[in-house]
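DM from R.C. (forwarded with permission)

"hey, sorry to bug you on a friday — could you get me a structure for this? deadline for the figure draft is monday and I only need the backbone to look sensible"
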Amino acid sequence: MSNVSALTFKMQPPLTPIRCKLTNTINVESVIMDLGKRVKDLRKDHGWSQLELSKRTSISRGRIAQLETNPVAEVKGESLVSLARAFGCTTEQLLSENALGSSMVGLKLQPITRKAPVIAWESLPELLGGNNVIENTQWVGCPHDISENSFALEVQNDLMTSINGRSYPVGVLIFVDQDQNPKSGDRVIAIDRDTSESVFREYVIDGGIKYLKPLNTHYPVQKCSDSTYIIGVVVGSYMAE
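My reply, with the result:
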């Protein structure tokens, strides 16, 4: 994926800590305990010792041992991000229902200090022209690991809704990181250089051919053309109450 000039956004507010509001609270200790078991299982699957995992993350060996054995060990957002990177997954996948047998709902993360600007879909073609200033007045705290070259968009249609697995209904904010290179299975923001039409789809490579696939099976899969450009990878989402 070609690099896009780093974005400079106007009217950035000071970074004030905020917290994600998570609903349907469950037993936090059970989530933490399940996370410790998941980390231990993944570590062994990779053939790593606790020391090796420590070298691959920002977490000490003692902290890893505590996480794997102590059911009330505190879980911090930065530790989750570091572990997810080491295992090659997202923090959502590390805490997913399929992986752990419980959802991340109710898990208390550390305060969010990074904000992403919410931009309009109509502004996306400006990125192709190298424009590094995009007008924006709204910023939102992001509970996911993002680079400074990131932004948020509001989902405007039902093409990425699904009755199974991950779903992005209308109104959800998605966080897009331009610094991540897309791989098959990623959710991405793509734009057609010729028509300036931008879309939110799943990026799929099958038999060497690249496609943009909606999660909603009522819509067709689109084959990428020479004019298709991937602006960035969707790294997370948030729905306000």
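R.C.: lifesaver. The chain has seven helices and eleven strands.
me: no worries. Confidence is low (pLDDT under 50) at residues 1-6, 8-33, 99-113.
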